[in-house]
Design a protein that fits this description.
With 141 residues, this protein is an alpha+beta fold. The chain is built from four helices and four strands, in the order H-H-E-E-H-H-E-E. It has helices spanning 2-27, 32-41, 83-100, 107-113; strands at residues 56-62, 68-78, 117-122, 138-140. Strands 3-1-2-4 form a four-stranded antiparallel beta sheet, covered by helices on one side.
């Protein structure tokens, strides 16, 4: 029985190592769409108890190593957001950027992305308009 358990542990370790390597390779950022997908994996919006859902966009640039270059800038927030909502979402965006950087760029993408500004939208609402509600006004941050 001990021998069988040892084999199971060995098999599990091999599977985990294989999965880890595949996950690392799959996690490399090689396209512009990959940048957006990568950053969204780190997005944790505030709970509804702390802030009403809103949409927010941040402009951020990266260096070749995938670190943030300069200071991220909020360029859009939903118009109906309160000051508390904006604050909570700004904190959540900055935390997402901290969790996701440095971005694991491939060599080719590192050269293409370095220094370019990316406008990253973080959406936390249903994007299809409700026919019963009036359209909302956009508000620049």
């Amino acid at each position: 029985m001990a021998r069988r358990g040892g084999k199971l542990v060995l098999v599990a370790a091999v599977l985990l190592l294989g999965t880890s390597q595949a996950a690392v390779e799959a996690a490399e950022v090689n396209t512009i769409q990959d940048i957006f997908r990568h950053l969204r994996t780190c997005w944790r919006p505030p709970s509804p108890a702390r802030a009403r859902p809103l949409d927010i966009t941040v402009v951020v640039s990266f260096n070749r190593a995938g670190n943030i270059l300069g200071h991220p800038r909020i360029t859009y927030e939903s118009a109906e957001a309160s000051d508390n909502d904006r604050l909570q979402y700004r904190i959540a965006v900055m935390e997402a950027l901290q969790r996701c950087t440095p971005v694991p760029f491939t060599d080719a993408m590192a050269g293409a992305a370095a220094g370019r500004p990316f406008a990253i939208p973080f959406r936390n609402r249903d994007t299809s308009p409700d026919k019963t509600s009036p359209p909302t006004q956009e508000r620049r941050a």
